[in-house]
Amino acid sequence: MTSNAHHTTTPTNDARDALPAESVLVAPAPPPTVPLRPPAAAWGLVVVAVRTTDAAGAPVRLTGDAPAPDPALTDTTDLLAGVWLPAPPPAALHTGDVVVRLHAPADDDPAVADVEVVAATQGEWSTVRTWQAIGTRWPHECPQDSSQPDSPASPRPRRRLAHRMPSPR
Hints:
4% helix; globular; 32% strand; mainly beta; 7-stranded antiparallel sheet
């Protein structure tokens, strides 16, 4: 990976061949290169590659095993790359795409961001999850919030965005 004067990290080596040329590598990346605000005139970062790791270690622990790693100190995202979009594309044509949107927090603290994840589903961009006041470790760890359950049996609250597109018929 390489970083430029604007603290944008781009993939190198094998990742360069596998990802679009305009990709931004968010993980792995040194903390100063992790974006907390989108570039000027960018709507969001469409995720083009993601790979996660098991932060808790092996699900079965045997006597004599090393202690389980602390999930708060363990990276859960091994790879996250995306392409900045200037505007939301038609959701009906991008079903299943996931976009990360970065917003300034209410107090405008430059050291943190409000992170919103949206997905194209049923012809609309809908909010899947949001985290408030997250630092440069946002690609790796976001606090669990009991008001936003992870269980598929308990649907997450979804907020419709103003960028509604009609479904193809």
